[in-house]
Amino acid sequence: MSESAAKVKGAPPVEVHDLTVSYQNKPVLWDVDFELPEGKLIAVVGPNGAGKSTLIKTIMGLIDPVSGHSLIYGRPLEQMRKKIAYVPQRETVDWNFPVSVFDVVLMGRYAHLSLFKRPKKHDKELAMEALEKVGMAEFADRQISQLSGGQQQRVFLARALAQDAEIYFMDEPFAGVDASTEDHILLLLKELRNHGRTVVVVHHDLQTVSGYFDWVMLLNLRLVALGPMETTFTKENLQKAYGGRLNILSQVIELSRKEDFIREPGHE
Amino acid sequence: MSTFWIILTACLASSACALVGSFLVLRKQAMLGDAISHAVLPGIAIAFLLTASRNTFPMLIGAGAFGLLTVYLTEKLQLRGRLMNDASMGIVFTTLFAIGVIIITMFASQVDLDQECILYGEIAYVPWDLWIFNGMNMGPRPVWILGFVLMLNLLFIVSCYKELKIYAFDRQLAVSMGIPIMLIHYGLMGSVSFSTIAAFESVGAILVVALIVVPPATAYLLTRRLSHLLMLAVFFGILSSISGYYLAYWTNSSIAGAIAVMTGVYFGLALFFSPVDGILAKKYRRKQNTGKGPYEGPGLELRTKQTINI
Amino acid sequence: MSELFTDFFLLQDPNVRWVLAGTILLGLSAGALGCFAVLRERALVGDAVAHAVLPGVCLAFIFTGDKDPLALLIGSVIFGWISLVVMDFIIRNSKISADTSIGMVLSVFFGLGVVLLTYIQSSGNVNQSGLDAFLFGNAASMLPEDVMLFGFVSLMVLVVIIAMYKELKLVSFDSSYAKVIGYPLKRMEFLIATLLVVTITAGLQAVGVVLMASMLIIPAAAARYWTDSLRVMLFVAAFVGGISAISGSFVSYAAPSMPTGPWMVVSAAFIFTLSFFFAPARGETRKWIKRLNQKQKIRRENILKTLYGLNEADGKEEKVRTLQEIIKKRRMEKKTLKRGLSELEKSGMIEHYRGRPDGFVLTETGRVEARRIVRLHRLWELYLTEKLEIAGDHVHDDAESMEHVITPEIEAQLLKILENPESDPHDEKIPY
Ligand SMILES: Nc1ncnc2c1ncn2[C@@H]1O[C@H](COP(=O)(O)OP(=O)(O)OP(=O)(O)O)[C@@H](O)[C@H]1O
Ligand SMILES: [Mg+2]
After folding, report:
1. N or C: which end of chain C has fewer CB within 10 A?
2. Which helix (H) or strand (E) is C174 found in, with range?
3. What CATH number does domain A14-259 carry, 3.30.70.790, 2.60.120.10, 3.40.190.10, 3.40.50.300?
4. Per-position b or e across A55-66, b if 16+ CB within 10 A of its CB
C-alpha cells in the first residue's frame, strides 16, 4: 500500500464511467454513468437483483467490469484505497475463525499499515473508539461467533469506522437490526456526513429513505435516476426502477449471454 | 544419541508443518496439504534424476515448483473446467503422484527412492544421514533442512502476520484494502510445499498430511485466538512426535505412522474434552443452560453445517 | 511390440485373462460410482476412505494370519465404514470443517495402517510378503481367487447402480426433496456409502490405496464433458474406467516392472485431458469454434454495414467500392477484411468486380441484409436513448455489439414500442 495520492482538486468523491458488469456473460449492470456529490448521505435503492451490491463491489475493485471504469477523487482506486471503506451486505467470513471482536475492528486499520508493519497503540485506540461508538466495547474480547446477527453487523460497521475513510460504502447496514440499533446506526452515519464524509448506503425500506438520506440513486440494471431526495425520489422514478419491466433489454441481455457473446470494442 | 536426533527431526518437521497447516485449516483448505504432499513427488524424482544425487537444494526447488503447479492447476481446472474444487484437486494430485511413481520405477537404478520411503519416510535412518561439510561432521542433514524450513516459516508468519490473518479471515476485505493477496496466497502455498518436502523425506507423503492438518485442528478446538492457535498447534505437533516415537519403539513399528496415530489421539481428546468447544463441555453447558457460557442463541446455530455422507 | 500386443489382447496367458477381467470390472464400477461422488461434491471422501481401509486389511491379516481375500475384504469394509462414521461425527459435533475432517481421517487412519503393517513385517510372519501391494496396487500379483471375489464385488456394485439408478439419481441431485417425497433417505445414504466402501476395497489390490480415489474421480470428471445426462455420464465414465484399466494392465504386461495402478491413473488422466479439450458437448474446442464462428459472423456483418454506409454517404448504390475505401471507412486488418469479403461473396451478399477499379458491390440480398443490420443498430440506439434515457453519446458501442444478436422477434417488439421511428438519435435515417 503505497502512500495514498492526493485528491485531484475539484474531483467528485466517486465517478463512474460507462460501467458494464456481468457475471458469466450475463450483464447485471448496464452502461452506468454518474458522479456522486461530496459530503452527502446517499441512498442506493432498487429491487432485489438490481445490481446494487454489484455496483459497490465493482467500485471497490472486488469485481472486474466488462467495460468502463470508476475513479475516486479523480484517481484510480489503487491509489485511493485508504480513502474508502466498505461494509458488505453479507459477511463471507468464517465465523468460527479464532479472532476476537477487537481483532476484527483492528483489521480496519490494516489499510493504513504497510507490509510487515504491526498495528501501533494509536491504531488500537482508534479501534477501541470505533467499538465504543457502535456500543460494542463490552464485547471486545468475545470471539465473533458468540455474537448475535445484529451485533455482528455492528462490529463490521465499527471496522469500517476504524478505517477512518472519506467515503463509506455500506450494503444494507439496516438489514436485520432492531429499531433502536437502527436509530443508533443512523446517528453514526449522520455524524460521518457532518464531518464531510460521503456515505453511500444500500437501503431497502422505501418508507424511511426520504427521512434518512440527502440524495438517492435509483438503480435497476441501469441507472434510473440520481439526485437530491426532493427532486429525484418521485413516484415516476420509483415506477421506472421497480415497476417498468425492462422486457426488451433483459431479453437482449439474455440472448447475448446465450450466444456467449463477447463485446468487442467498437471501431469506426 | 540416535533417539535424540530422531525426536528432534520429528519435532522440527511437526512444528514447521503445524505453522503453515494452521492457515490451511483456517482457510478450509486442509486437503490442499494432502494434494501438495502427493504432487511434489515428480518434482523430487526429477530433481533426483537431474542431479543424480539426493541433493537438497534442487529437491526443494523441484518440490516447490510442483507444489505451486498443483495449486495453480487446481484453480485453473476449477475455473475453466467447471469442476468442483475437490474433484479438480483430486485429478491433479493423483495424476502427478502417479507420474512420480512411474518416473521412480522407470529409473529405479538412478533414483534411490523406494515406494515405502515415499509412504512412510525414513526417519529411523536420520541419525546416519550425516551432513559432512568441509570434512566436518555437522550432524544429521534432515535436522538442518527442517530447521531451515522452520525458520523460513517462522519468518514468513511473523513478518506477514497481519496479512495472513486477514487473508485467512476475510479475503474480501483484504482485496478491498489492496493487500497483496496473491502474494500471500502463493507465499503460503510455497511454504506448504517446502515444509512438505522437508518433512516428506522423514515421514513420507501421507503422514505429512497428519502433521499439517491434525495438530492445528486440535488447537482450533482449544482456543479462540489465532496466536494461541499457532502455539498450541506446534505444541501438539511436538507432543505427538515425542509420544509417537515411544509408541513406535514400544510396538516395534513405524515411527512416522505412530506419530500420526498420536496426533489423532490428541485430537480425539480435544474433541471430547476441550473446555472451549469439546463435546462434553457443550453438553454440560446445554444442561446448565444458565446463559453463563458463550452465547449460543440465534446467529450461532443458524449457520448451516455441511455434513458428509459419501 | 506388436507381438506383445497380440499376445496381450488374444488373452493367451491365463494370468493376463484374470488380471484384465479384474481390472476392467473395477474400472467400470469405480467409473460409474464415481459419478455420484463427483456430482455430490464428495470426491475426496473416496480418497480418505481408500486410505482408511489400510488398518482393516492389516487387522484382518493379523487375525487370520493369512491373506484370505474374503477376510481382507471384510476387514477393509469395516474400516471404510468406521472412517465415514468418524468423519461425519467430527463434522456434526464440532466446528471442524469437512475438508479438515477428511484430511484428518485420511492421515490418521493411514498412520494406524502403517503402524500395523510395519508391526506385521517386524513380527516376521512369512505370509506377509505382498501385503504392501495394497499400498500401490499390484494387479499382476492378483490370484484367480482374488480376482473372482473382487470382480464379483465390482459386478454387484454395477448391478446395484443399474437397478437403483432412479433412486440414486434423486438422492444425489436433491436429497432433501427425496426425503420430502418419502424416500428412505438414511437407508439410501447407507447404500451409497456401502457401495463406495466396497468398490474401493475391491480396487485396492489393483490400484492401491494411494491412487484408488483417482479411479473414482477422473473417469467421472472426464465423462462430464461429454454429456449433460446422468445416464450417459455413467456409461461414459464406466467406459473411461474400463479403457484406463486395459491400458494400465497392458503397460505393466509389456514392461513387468511397471506398476499397473499409476499407469491406469495416467491413462485416465490422458483421457480426461482429451475430453477437456475435445469433447463436443462441453469441451474447450467447442467454445473456441463457437467464438470463431461468431467472430466471423460479426466480421461479415460489419463489412456489409460498411458498404452500406459508403453507399448511404454518396447515394451511389451500384458503385464499386475498393479495399482502400472500405478500410478508410472502418479500420480493419487487410487480411481479415479479404477473408470476410470472400465469405460474403460465397454467400452471394456481394459481387467482386475484377475490373478497374477492382472492388465490391452489394447484391440485392446483400443490400437487404445490410439494411437489416443498420436498422437494428439504429433502433437499439434509439431504444437506449428514448426508453432507458441513456445519453446519446454512450449508446453507439452498445449498439455496435447488440446489432449482431437481436432476433426478428425482438426487432418487432422494438418497432412496436418505438412506433416505427424514422430516424435514430443522431438523426440518421432508419432503413426499412
Ligand atoms: N456471484 C454471482 N454469480 C452470478 N450471478 C450473480 C452473482 N452475484 C450476483 N449475481 C446476479 O447479479 C444480479 C445482481 O446482483 P446484486 O447482488 O448486485 O443485486 P442487489 O441489487 O444487491 O440485490 P439485493 O437487493 O437482493 O441485495 C442478480 O440477478 C444476481 O442473481
Ligand atoms: Mg445486494
Report:
1. N
2. none
3. 3.40.50.300
4. bbbbbbbbbebe
State the amino acid at position C2 in one-letter form: S
As a whole number of angstroms, the distance between CA C113 and CA C59 comes to 9
Domains, chain C, ranges and CATH? Answer: 2-280 (1.10.3470.10), 286-362 (1.10.10), 366-418 (1.10.60.10)
Burial class for C236, CB neighbours closer than 10 Å (0-12, 13-18, 19+):
buried
Distance, CA of B126 to CA of B130 (rounded, Å) = 8
Query: Nearest C-alpha to atom 2 of ligand 1 is from which residue?
Result: A23
What pLDDT band is residue C289 in, cutting at 50, 70 and 90? confident
Give the distance from residue B294's alpha carbon to the nearest chain A alpha carbon, in angstroms. Answer: 6
Q: Which residues contact B283 (CB under 8 A, 6 or more apart)?
A: none
Q: Edge-to-edge strand order for the sheet containing A167-171?
A: A84-87, A167-171, A198-202, A41-45, A215-220, A222-228
**Inter-chain residue contact B206 with C210, CB threshold 8 Å:** yes
Least confident of B140-144, C142-146, C150-154: C142-146
Q: Per the CB < 8 Å rule, is B176 touching A61?
A: yes
Q: Which residues of C touch B310 (CB under 8 A)?
A: 36-37, 40, 42, 45-46, 84, 189, 192-193, 196
**pLDDT > 90 in chain C, percent:** 21
Domains and CATH numbers, chain B: 2-206 (1.10.3470.10)
Residues with CB under 6 A from ligand 1: A 23-24, 28, 46, 48-54, 89
User: Cα separations (Å) of A40 from A181, A227, A230?
Assistant: 22, 11, 14
Cα(A43) to ligand 2 centroid in Å equals 13
**Please, which residues 101-130 of chain A have a Cβ atom closer than 8 Å to chain B?**
103-104, 107, 110-111, 113, 115-119
| Residue C22: all three cell numbers together | 479384474
A228, pLDDT greater than 70: yes
Q: Is A122 exposed, middle or buried (0-12, 13-18, 19+ CB in 10 A)?
A: exposed
**Pairs from A223-230 (Cβ < 8 Å, separation ≥ 24):** A223/A32, A223/A33, A223/A34, A224/A46, A226/A34, A226/A36
Distance A224 CA to ligand 2 centre (A): 17
B132: β partners: B137
Among B28, B94, B105, whose Cβ lies nearest the Cβ of C211?
B94
Position of cell 447475448?
A256
Residue A203 Cα, ligand 2 centroid: separation in angstroms? 9
Residue C55 has pLDDT above 90, yes or no: yes
Are A34 and A222 in contact by the 8 Å Cβ rule? The answer is no
**Prior bond of C357 cis (ω within 30°):** yes
A97:B169 CB<8 A: yes
**Which chains border C (3 or more CB–CB pairs < 8 Å)?**
A, B
Task: Read off the pTM.
Answer: 0.82
> Please, where are the H alpha helices in C164-229?
165-173, 175-180, 185-207, 209-224
- Note down pLDDT in tens along chain B; length 310 residues: 688 999 999 999 999 999 999 999 999 889 998 899 888 889 888 888 888 766 677 878 888 889 899 999 998 888 887 788 888 999 999 999 999 888 888 887 666 666 667 777 777 777 777 777 777 777 788 888 899 999 999 999 999 998 999 998 888 888 888 888 889 998 999 899 889 888 887 778 778 999 999 999 999 999 988 999 999 999 999 999 999 999 999 988 889 999 999 999 999 999 999 888 888 888 887 777 654 444 444 333 333 344 444 4
Per-domain residue ranges for chain A? 14-259
Q: Which atom of ligand 1 is nearest to the CA of A29?
A: 14
Compare B95 and C180 and report the one with higher pLDDT.
B95
B81 alpha carbon – ligand 2 mean position (Å): 28
